[in-house]
Amino acid sequence: MQTALQFGDDIFVVQSFSKYFSMTGWRLGWLVVPERFTRDIEKLAQNLFISPPTPAQYAALAAFAPATLSILESRRKEFQRRRDFLAPALANLGFHVAAKPEGAFYIYANCGGLTQDSDRFARDLLESAGVAATPGLDFGSNAPEKHLRFAYTTRVERLAEAVDRIRRFLG
């Protein structure tokens, strides 16, 4: 088993249960901190919150049960399969995917070869092809007008249909 501690004894790991554990909205997370900072983190936590809700704590504990981890691993593999379908399909349509997503279920694609206005492009894509993508302006300042975010939160067959619709939209 790998651990962050193999890279140094000054590593902080900040994580949540949102994505992998499918607990979005529960607002529950965890930390791994060097032992010498434990008391400082405890003092900080005491001033930020009392405690997460009891149901969220029980849900987090259940997330580590072997049966749950098995389910989550199969979900992770399915998302990987969807990503591995969609990323090259988008590239074949003229989008540029600079980085393969490793921790979420979105592809942030450069559409600069197709448009200089991702906001308008996203609206046209939705209205004309029935495909939803989110313009880059919602995700920061790195050339947002040239980026779209595509979610792969649906089955591969629906993603293939979306790719077909985009292909027809592009002509």
From TrEMBL:
<feature type="domain" description="Aminotransferase class I/classII large">
    <location>
        <begin position="8"/>
        <end position="166"/>
    </location>
</feature>
<dbReference type="GO" id="GO:0006520">
    <property type="term" value="P:amino acid metabolic process"/>
</dbReference>
<dbReference type="Pfam" id="PF00155">
    <property type="entry name" value="Aminotran_1_2"/>
</dbReference>
<dbReference type="GO" id="GO:0030170">
    <property type="term" value="F:pyridoxal phosphate binding"/>
</dbReference>
<dbReference type="InterPro" id="IPR015424">
    <property type="entry name" value="PyrdxlP-dep_Trfase"/>
</dbReference>
<keyword id="KW-0808">Transferase</keyword>
<dbReference type="InterPro" id="IPR050596">
    <property type="entry name" value="AspAT/PAT-like"/>
</dbReference>
<dbReference type="InterPro" id="IPR004839">
    <property type="entry name" value="Aminotransferase_I/II_large"/>
</dbReference>
<dbReference type="InterPro" id="IPR004838">
    <property type="entry name" value="NHTrfase_class1_PyrdxlP-BS"/>
</dbReference>
<dbReference type="InterPro" id="IPR015421">
    <property type="entry name" value="PyrdxlP-dep_Trfase_major"/>
</dbReference>
<keyword id="KW-0663">Pyridoxal phosphate</keyword>
<keyword id="KW-0032">Aminotransferase</keyword>
<dbReference type="GO" id="GO:0008483">
    <property type="term" value="F:transaminase activity"/>
</dbReference>
<protein>
    <recommendedName>
        <fullName>Aminotransferase</fullName>
        <ecNumber>2.6.1.-</ecNumber>
    </recommendedName>
</protein>
<comment type="similarity">
    <text>Belongs to the class-I pyridoxal-phosphate-dependent aminotransferase family.</text>
</comment>
